[in-house]
Protein: Sigma-54-dependent Fis family transcriptional regulator
Organism: Dyadobacter luticola
Amino acid sequence: MILIVDDDLAIRTSLALLLKSEGFTVKGAGTPEDTFEILKNTTPELILLDLNFSIETSGEEGMQLLKRIKKFNPAIPVILITGWGTIDLAVMGMKEGANDFITKPWQNSYLVQSVRTILNLAAQTPQSANRRRLEQQYHFENIVGQDAKLLDILETVGRVSSTDAPVLITGESGTGKELIAEAIHSNSKRKSRPFVKVNLGGISSTLFESELFGHVRGAFTDAKSDRIGRFEMAHKGSIFLDEIGELDLASQVKLLRVLQERTFEPLGSSKSRTVDVRVICATNRNLEEMVANGTFREDLYYRINLITVKLPALRERPDDIPLLSEFFINNLKIIYQRPHLTLNPAARKWLKTLPLQGNIRQLKNLVERTVLLSSSDTLDIADFQKNLNANPVAASTKNLPEVGTITLEEMEFQMITRAMQFHQNKVSKVARSLGITRFALYRRLEKFGISYESEDA
């Protein structure tokens, strides 16, 4: 049973008709007293609570009622309904234990989707993580590892994939956030629909609207024809917003609007378009810290992280390093036509001791360099050692300046300049050597005014 709490009979009736048409059992309450009379006799599966609960629009009465509900039974999921102008109040409600918030005027399809998502998440019971069982139940072919931390993550990924819950994937660079996003999509009901990847770190604020929402012919000087944006490409599927922590505040507002209202207007158009997408975001930055510092919107943060998946660094699961190494070697056997490639047992143990600050990406590069430069089909410790510090840019960091003699920005400029010179301005090679994405490098090159050769995405 779903309990609708609102003093406005018209809203209660409208929501009740909508939810009943979707097969839900519904009850309504017009006052806090009515609400608790129902709660004393039955436990609803979910509560829809309008924050503008009384004649006044401050939302205070609705917020107080939320606190009372959570104190009475914190296990009952609550979805808040609020106006766009009072989203700050909804964010306060999320801190008090609400599970989601919807703005007025709501879209019926989105409201029902949110209700189903919350109910599905509440109904699922976590099971003990076991790789064999996970493989039988889900599709995780491209994710390698047996570590308990990873298996717990895959268990969570499997459970939430069947819902439309927005997921935020966090973790250091190179930990495999994109693979997890792909796994969420491939195990979802949307798997036959598009999976659109967007690297927000590679999109400037001036191009943000055009890239994500598209544009019509004549919207700006170079707009020779209409262009479909990434959100429209992902309609009925999933959109993966990587490096979301790189967005400036103005772009964050525009993104929040489309996530909240599920509508957007292409640049240069006055016609709104509706979009149905599952949103998966990723970042290697600390968004909670950014929220505290005012560089990331709190309402956007709560909108994207109904479920948070934090990936461990590779050094935190060392037993998976040999498994990953052999996975890469087996792929390279085919690519380089060397069917007899194997990993020496001593090398397996030695690889587990490496710090690998660049995580899986660094390990993959190390294995591939070693395969390319080794004449032997049996890779041993010496083969890897030759290539571990083969990157002159990384080796040059041994001679770091004294603390206080140079700023971090100046050091970043020097490192990028040195890498560009060594790799003859080849952006892909420079990005790989610095352990960042090509799009993140483009942003830094523009920031420092460093010339470069453009490469196709």
